[in-house]
Amino acid sequence: MNTKASLSRRDLLKKGSTGLAALAVGPSLLALSQPLSARTLADVGPLLPPDSNGIRLPEGFTSRIIAAAGQRVRRSFWNRTAYHWHSYPDGGATFAAADGGWVYVSNSETINLLGGGASAIRFNPDGSVNDAYRILDGTNLNCAGGPTPWQTWLSCEETDYGRVYECDPFGQQPARLRRGLGFFKHEAAAIDPVFNMVYLTEDESDGRFYRFIPAGVNNNGSLQLDEGVLQVAAVDDQGYVTWLNVPNATPNLFETPTREQLPQSTAFDGGEGCWYSHGRVYFTTKGDNKVWQLDTNLNRLTVIYDAATAETPVLTGVDNLTVSGGGDLLVAEDGGDMQIVVIDKQGDVAPLLQVTGQEDSEITGPAFSPNGQRLYFSSQRGSDLFGGGNGFGITYEIRGPFGNFVKL
């Protein structure tokens, strides 16, 4: 960590986010009053042999293929939608629909000429597929991103001077470029709905960890993402963060990249997934196989998993992540053992599932359905036994007793 930005804790709190006066009743302190779960997803038991889809799951869990790259998304075996699923599926999230169904959104990490952008699958209340469609075109290498509390999807380009587009998961409104979130090699985004800020990761070996303070809040509760202040983290040797204003958040090819504009800011080795939950922002760095936690009340950053020091480094190739309704952190592996691994609130680490026979792929886009009963994810370069995905990606659904685990 960078020691040049060392300040007292009191100073750091003063320099932290606006609204820190809410510290005494912040969500992280409220979470501490919740009873500890008697069981977590780390306790589901050993993984069984691969099922018919090549996925190892705990007892009581099942898998199904939802979509395969290049193939029309199926409603049933004989009934297909008109939409061909995109290749190289990456970051994803779900959104509740008014009829009790939901939408799963997925990015396409390829160039515009080969698809790019993002797509969505609409589910009925019983979990059956209703439709599939595009929600973003004309962009490149859309890697991860993040959902917003106002039911939109932030799709991030992982390119030099990449951009962020706000998309309608239901396909009713056109996607919009959000300049306020900066131009850099974006990976993921997470919104803190308490302090109204956006946190962003950067996929560079010397990438930075950013936050965006919007100019205001719209009448519908959404944040103004075109105007505001982009900041970068400078971390002292105790983990406390000072947020520095980026001088030029939207540089062009001939200007200094955002990560190089403030040398006193802290470098992170390959920022990947990012997720907000109950006063914490979690993110991963693939270059050093670490999982980080930012306490948004205290502006303090800690490492909650480090493969180099873990007694049993079950988790490697850290990438996309999400949080279950019970507060368990789920981290997808890029390579590694092709697992989704649980880190529970007690710090226990265990695999939840493993994809076999696809060692050259990576797991992407883990997201629970709004009711918490189903888990979606993709094998980005996977193919099934019948050629589904053709090495360009498959999207899966996992069902099981997720509801047995205490929700916050």
Rg from alpha-carbon coordinates = 20 Å
Helical percentage: under 10%
**Any low-confidence stretches, pLDDT <50, length ≥5?**
1-38
CATH T-level fold name: Neuraminidase
Pfam families: PhoX
Keywords: Signal
Protein name: DUF839 domain-containing protein
Condensed summary:
The chain is mainly β and 408 residues long. The chain has 2 helices and 28 strands.
Architecture blueprint of SSEs:
Layout: H1 9-15, H2 27-32, E1 55-56, E2 62-68, E3 72-74, E4 80-84, E5 89-96, E6 102-108, E7 118-123, E8 129-136, E9 142-147, E10 153-157, E11 164-167, E12 176-177, E13 186-192, E14 197-202, E15 209-214, E16 228-235, E17 241-245, E18 271-277, E19 280-285, E20 290-295, E21 300-306, E22 318-323, E23 329-333, E24 339-343, E25 349-355, E26 363-368, E27 374-379, E28 394-399
Antiparallel strand pairs: 1-25, 2-28, 3-4, 5-6, 6-7, 7-8, 9-10, 10-11, 11-12, 13-14, 14-15, 15-16, 16-17, 18-19, 19-20, 20-21, 22-23, 23-24, 24-25, 26-27, 27-28
Protein model, in words:
With 408 residues, this protein is mainly beta. The protein has 2 helices and 28 strands. The chain has helices at residues 9-15, 27-32; strands spanning 55-56, 62-68, 72-74, 80-84, 89-96, 102-108, 118-123, 129-136, 142-147, 153-157, 164-167, 176-177, 186-192, 197-202, 209-214, 228-235, 241-245, 271-277, 280-285, 290-295, 300-306, 318-323, 329-333, 339-343, 349-355, 363-368, 374-379, 394-399. It has a single domain (9-404), classed as Neuraminidase, CATH 2.120.10. It is 3% helix and 40% strand. The relative contact order is 0.18. A 5-stranded antiparallel beta sheet has the order 1-25-24-23-22, with no helix packed on it. A 5-stranded antiparallel beta sheet has the order 13-14-15-16-17, with no helix packed on it. The protein is globular and about 55 Å long.
